[in-house]
Amino acid sequence: MSASIIDGKAAAQALRERLAIEVSRIDAEHSWVPGLAVVLVGEDPASQVYVRNKGKQTAEAGMRSFEHKLPASTSERELLALVETLNQDDSVNGILVQLPLPDHIDAQLVIETIDPAKDVDGFHPMNTGGLSNGDPTALVPCTPLGCLMMLREQFPGGMAGLNAVVVGRSNIVGKPMAQLLIAESCTVTVAHSKTRDLPALCQTADILVAAVGRPEMVRGDWVKEGAVVIDVGINRVQLEGQEKARLVGDVAFTEAAENARAITPVPGGVGPMTIACLLRNTVVAACRQHRVVCELS
Ligand SMILES: Nc1nc(=O)c2c([nH]1)NC[C@@H]1CN(c3ccc(C(=O)N[C@@H](CCC(=O)O)C(=O)O)cc3)C=[N+]21
After folding, report:
1. At the top level of its lineage, which domain of life is listed (predicted)?
2. Is ligand 1 within 6 A of the CB of residue 47?
3. Cβ(121) – ligand 1 distance below 6 Å
4. What is the CATH number of domain 31-118+271-297?
5. What's the CA gap between 61 and 72, in Å, rounded?
């Protein structure tokens, strides 16, 4: 079988178009627009890519974008004070503090300082707890949410009873992805660096989500015939004799595409959907804060 390629870029654009329509409806009926604040401390390259695309797309959807770029030397106290200011600011409906943060800042403390109602990353314990309890009002982390949306398109009849393997157990992707798949009634296994015989485990997966951050670790023969493969990895690899770094996923794409029924590419797969879901979470959060019904389909 040769896999169909899941077009995350197109799916993200379609989602952003629906968001723009909802934002203009809200503006017309209620005279406010959702606002998203992004805080970047220091100069992590992955975060810079993210911020670049995000600011543009927030504005294109008709929303307000507030960027706070702070030097790497910013103290924990200063960052917490900024978060508290943003918590109090009614024009800010969503707050995202880019991770990773410099070592001298306690990232968990920063996350726990964000008002859970404005935590559009879905990292606050109130939201992670809500997700695991099946609370429909919990804000869901953007990357796993984007993966779920693409999976739902692949399984019009639902995912109940399917074997899902999530490779990676991070708080940002692996754990919340597993929760979402459990809620879809999949049988979920979370694999990680200590997992024994990872290839054999992956071969049992109807749904395989790779989120480990290791370039092309998942090989073609790990993929079951007809599986749907979601590649969350965004790895910059420097090839010899080439000037520019190339982006590759956690999955060896060409090999895996021979066995998979459908697969996300890198770039153009999960990445664009992550940003679109961030905007979605901001619109949803803004509607809740204003106690108006969100009419997103
Ligand atoms: N609090 C927080 N939340 C995050 O969600 C978060 C973060 N911190 N820190 C950094 C990482 C990274 N991240 C990306 C999202 C989209 C693309 C993206 O759109 N990638 C394009 C490629 C862009 C390119 O060409 O370089 C694609 O995959 O097609 C990349 C990276 C979100 N992150």
Report:
1. Bacteria
2. yes
3. yes
4. 3.40.50.10860
5. 30
